[in-house]
């Protein structure tokens, strides 16, 4: 079995590559990544010399390159993680989100169709469903919740999902889609809430909380997401969408306070800053379909997962310090400089 993993140098992709390389020594895992600011091969150091693993640098939206790669490699399965993934960046510069997330997906779909791929899996997000009100804890996203996006990021992901489903219906391409809630865990790029707060708190720096910090996210440990995708590509029904989430809803303020407490840092580090435009209020996934059809069960709850994650950042300082000292510093200044003054 030969599997193409796109975006395998990013946060979830690198965790998925680890999972697959270790669990399936008989498979060939090819990691295709453009190495944008979010791609980091240091996240794959411990498996880079494994005989069942190979890295290829390239752009999923580069049609001639992708066609040549598929012609040469003849993949059985494609798992597409490659994307621009940060909502705030999509507000600053939407164009690259259309280019990578929509056009790139369509190139991969064409290549999968042309070269008879047996399963194309699209890694999507709960953000395609929009948001839920804060005062209706009884409401959850199911696979039939209408798509209703808020940001350029979520709009690009929803658009890609519609192309994936169109290639199933029109061309019979054997596709599956997973829509997961917020992930956290090792190798999470420190522009996202949890790693950003951990590393800034460690340095006693101000913690920028958007608005009142009352927005709710449904947190899932990245290993549980990887296990779900593994199940779906092997046992999921083609043409189907599977929601992935573990019922771990927390307000942003609860998350930040949990991190501060674990690090023994004062809550006075919290700084309320201008809200994200169009900020989604609450995400909450109903994972019943994945649980009942495929027997998926998360291994972590938020308390065990966040403790493991904080420990990981404490014991892998060299991993994130290299990011902080590089391009990331310029990005942070551009994104927060004015807001933290
Ligand atoms: P990430 O930003 O950490 O990683 C994205 C990776 O894609 C990087 O390695 C980057 O170099 C690569 N990439 C970007 N453009 C590319 C291109 N044109 N060609 C090839 N590679 C390219 O993202 P992530 O958080 O790991 O998310 C991975 C996927 O999972 C995305 O599709 C995202 O929408 C989805 N998702 C993320 C979450 C989350 O909480 N992070 C939750 C649900 C779904
Ligand atoms: O729900 C899945 C999505 O989760 C994925 O599809 C996205 O790729 C991923 O980035 C994530 O999106 P969010 O916008 O929810 O994640 P982020 O970490 O950027 O923000 C989480 C919450 O924290 C959100 O309500 C905004 C808030 N926030 C974020 C940052 C970076 C802050 O208050 N301060 C911050 O500095």
What does this structure look like?
With 341 residues, the chain is an alpha/beta fold. The protein contains twelve helices and 13 strands. The strands form four sheets. Strands 3-2-1-4-5-6-11 form a seven-stranded parallel beta sheet, sandwiched between helices. α1 links the parallel β1 and β2. α4 packs parallel to α5 and α6 runs parallel beside α8. 45% of the residues are buried. The mean pLDDT is 96. The chain binds nicotinamide-adenine-dinucleotide and 2'deoxy-thymidine-5'-diphospho-alpha-D-glucose. The site of nicotinamide-adenine-dinucleotide has 29 residues, from α1, α4 and β5.
Feature tags:
single chain; globular; binds nicotinamide-adenine-dinucleotide; 7-stranded parallel sheet; 13 strands; binds 2'deoxy-thymidine-5'-diphospho-alpha-D-glucose; 43% helix; two-stranded parallel sheet; alpha/beta; 341 residues
